[in-house]
Amino acid sequence: MMLGVLLLIPLIATILIALVRPRAWIELIHALAALGGLAVGLIVAARVWRGDVPAAIGGLLRADGLSALMVVVITLLGAIAALYGIGYIRAEYDDTHPARTRSFFGLFHLFIFTMLLAVTTDNLGIMWVAIEGTTLATAFLVNLHNTPRSLEAAYKYLILSSVGIALAFIGTVLLYYAGASRAGEVAVNWTSLRAAASSLNPQVVRLAFAFILVGYGTKAGLAPMHTWLPDAHSEAPAPISALMSGVLLNVGLYALMRFKVVADIAVGPNFTGPWLIGIGLFSLAVAATFLIAPRNYKRMLAYSSVEHVGVICMGLGFGGYWGVLGALLHVINHALSKSLLFILSGNILLKYQTTDIRRVRGLLQTSPLTAGAFLAGILALIGLPPFGPFMSELLIFRAGLESGPVWVVILGVALLVIVFAGMLGSVNQMLYGAPPEKVEYGDVLRWSLAPLAINFVLLLVLGLALPHAVTEALEQALKVLGVSRA
Known about the structure:
Helices cover about 75% and strands about 0% of the residues. By secondary structure, the chain is mostly helical.
């Protein structure tokens, strides 16, 4: 029942926003839907963590420990981005642009609906449709500003994501065939497929995983399929960039994790591990190359997403308890830090009317609150203590030292040092110096930044110690992924 309510809230909000006309009503529906979705999402997750397995529509919808973790991330960051989005869109568009305002709020909740559906369905086909739905919803949001650059970014995003999802479809069909050819008819859902995983045709599973890795890896932003990501994330409105980078990439990783469990049982972890380590390390190397001296701060954050997704894949590839635990924890930490920074980048864009790092100077003087929060967010993102990403990266590379080879860990850490230097140097250019003459002093949307306190508190808590509730949630997700502490 609650799973159905969770999905109905954003869907109904989308319909109502399309029907009502007054802007105040649209904003009210938008805020209530975001907060209501968060409340229901926490209730669903709490039920799972108490040992229940919520299901609906004859088992098509089902939530386990991994689903619950993703639901909390989606609804929490969705609510934070939604609340900020009200002020941001008011600053971007006045009442003379009602169509764009309605499009933003309506597509925002359609985007939330598709992500929630992807992580709460037990059916592989419905998950595939939902992830394709995220592309259709966000393509229009990427082009919300309707400029040549945003149109190009949306077109590239639509084409590359569609190619990726087509490859993922081939992988899904092959995985189903692997069961039909060896184990007889197997239902196209996770529970049945995992139960029959040991009897699947291993050769077909290997081929299927290759397609899945490239297909859903495109959606997750893994290199070399990442080329849509910097353009789309830099052109989308700040609240959408926050969700695309902080949440949508994790939905692609969620699909990869699900298929990895089946492949590991069918052919052994020695097959998927090297693939994930290799593509993760390559993603980290590509990101480091573009982060040495970035010129656009939104593209800088986008390439940082490629870096962090690569780190998460390395953790999954290293495997074992600490590797997968670090990967799951990094999913949370990256979501919190990247959504925070993209929202703050919206404030910087509203203040300076540019995303060019060379034209943003004296941020500490003109917007001290935004500047201080942006610096703290960058320090968290590049993995400095006492923030959460430091702890999750430490766990991942500890797993790498245990499972080997050691040179992979050394190279990974060296690439992180390059990212550290490049991003910190770029942020320093933005913070100091003489601000442009036309830039007024004072933070914009000051009160809209209040929800970001949640991001900071959670990043500090996850960097200093893991609360019991978080540990239990991660343990349940680890069980779904077939990992237990020795």
